Amino acid sequence: MIDPLPFPGDPSELHLRIVYTDTLSDTPDADTLEEWSVEILHRSREHDGSRCPAAPGACNAEDCPAYTVSDSAAGSMTFFRVHLDRGRNAYAAMEEASEDLYEIAQALLDPATGYYTDEVGELLEYSGSALLVMDRVALHEEWRGRGLGVILASEAIFRLTPGCRAVACAPGVSDLSADRLRNKAEWDRVTTKIARGWERLGFLPYRDNVFVISPTSLVLEERRGQLRRRLVELGAAWAAARA
Questions:
Q1: How many CB atoms lie within 10 A of CB 30?
Q2: Span 203-239, pLDDT tens digits
Q3: How many Å is the Cα radius of gyration of the chain?
Q4: Which whole-number Å values give the CA distances from 58 to 18, 48, 61, 128, 146, in the listed order?
Q5: Where are the domains positioned within the chain?
Q6: Full 3-state SS string of 33-78
Q7: Measuring CA to CA, which residue among 175, 172, 176 is closest to residue 209?
Q8: Does an H or E element contain 238, and which?
Q9: Which residues of 186-209 are buried (b: 16+ CB within 10 A; e: fewer)?
């Protein structure tokens, strides 16, 4: 049983727009680090009664020209596809790019070669040489809760993993605006909750704050199926609450 939801719209109408912008920069870093932006969008339909040709109560919602469809932003995600076999040393490129990427590089890559450490290589089946980093997942406040971030991230990961040997993240808080997060106990509670969310997707803690999953893991596919069913349930509960 799912309680009535505070969402501003039907969660089953959320969808993703995944974009890679190639700046055509002729630099080794550009060949090594690909930044992928993911827009989280909500699709809504609105009916303008003044434009409806049908009599009141006789409108065919499917074909009525008075309906308009629009997308509104519900959040965003950022991923990096890190190519370990082209461009410059991937460890050095990640170190210079950001502290978050450097944290992951320290856990998974050999500084000298820029490739996976021997230990990491032994843990992961070969499914390509690249590394996919889930760098940021942020939902607008009105969409938070109920695990939507995990559901949507699983779909983005599914689209971006081809050619990757590992998917990694370092769970943390992306929105630091809330005053309550200045309290250490609350900060720890929230970051622990975030980490548990990624564990639901199949990520496992590897070292320090870095979590890893193999794209070949059956767990990833199973969890994606479960999360898709959860999204259907959320949509049904939202509709029932409005009936």
A1: 16
A2: 999 998 899 999 998 999 999 999 999 999 999 999 8
A3: 21
A4: 39, 14, 9, 56, 36
A5: 11-242
A6: EEEEEEEEEEEEEEECHHHCCCCCCCCCCCCCCCEEEEEEEEEEEE
A7: 172
A8: helix 218-242
A9: ebeebeeebbebbbebbbeebeeb
Q: How many residues does the chain have?
A: 243
pLDDT for res 1: 42
Structure tokens at 78: 């950022």
What is the value of pTM for the model shown? 0.85
Give the CA angle between residues 163, 111, 20 to the nearest 5°. Answer: 35
For residues 91 and 125, the answer to whether their CB atoms sit within 8 Å is no
- Dihedral of CA 122/128/131/136: which sign? negative
- Nearest Cα neighbor of 75 from 137, 20, 21 is 137
pLDDT in tens, 6-28: 789 999 999 999 999 988 877 88
Amino acid at 11: P
What distance in Å separates the CA atoms of residue 98 and residue 133, rounded to the nearest whole number?
12
